[in-house]
Inverse folding.
């Protein structure tokens, strides 16, 4: 055992520690002949801990083996979900309603819950724009697909005056959706470029 400890020290390894039962091996005997040992462990370099500070070693429940399985994973604390940040979308300014949504949210008088009034106004604007965006734009890809299917159906029919008018309206709607989609993806590519360039 001393040689093993010396080898760990010589290699500069650290014991990662664990979460769960301290014993990882059991001789499968009942009392008074039962023996439990903490045999299984994870040894890592200090640099590894610096790169992965949140990873934990879990001692899982043993099933058919006399050893507990071990698993390294990130904490699953639901309160530490990735935070979603509000982003103003360039495509929103293509709608005449955008300014009105911002104005209404900004001038709405609601309790501040301890936040500064300006902070609450910004939060209200973000919430209002997010809700409005889904109602106004929804899923552009789905809308385009639906409009194109309708256009294909119209093109397969005899062109009545109503069909020609509807076709013209659908083509106008497709042009509008394509413009919105282009603005959306241009904004996304610019964000990715800026993020990658950091």
């Amino acid at each position: 055992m001393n040689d093993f400890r010396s080898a760990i020290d010589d290699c500069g390894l650290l014991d990662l520690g664990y979460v769960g039962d301290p014993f990882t091996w059991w001789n499968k005997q009942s009392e008074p002949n039962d023996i439990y040992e903490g045999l299984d462990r994870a040894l890592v370099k200090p640099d590894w801990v610096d790169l992965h500070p949140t990873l934990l070693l879990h001692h899982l429940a043993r099933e058919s083996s006399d050893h507990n399985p071990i698993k390294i994973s990130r904490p699953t604390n639901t309160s530490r979900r990735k935070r979603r940040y509000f982003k103003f979308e360039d495509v929103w300014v293509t709608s005449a309603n955008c300014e009105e949504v911002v104005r209404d949210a900004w001038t709405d008088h609601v309790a501040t819950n301890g936040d500064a009034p300006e902070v609450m106004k910004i939060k209200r604007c973000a919430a209002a724009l997010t809700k409005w965006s889904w109602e106004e734009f929804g899923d552009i890809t789905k809308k385009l697909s639906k409009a194109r299917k309708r256009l294909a159906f119209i093109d397969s029919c005899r062109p009545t005056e109503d069909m020609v008018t509807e076709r013209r309206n659908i083509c106008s709607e497709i042009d509008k959706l394509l413009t919105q989609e282009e603005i959306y993806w241009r904004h996304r590519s610019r964000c990715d470029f800026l993020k990658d360039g950091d």
In short: The two ends are 49 Å apart (CA to CA). The beta strands are 14-15, 25-26, 36-37, 43-44, 56-59, 70-73. Helices lie at 2-11, 46-51, 98-107, 117-136, 140-155, 161-197.
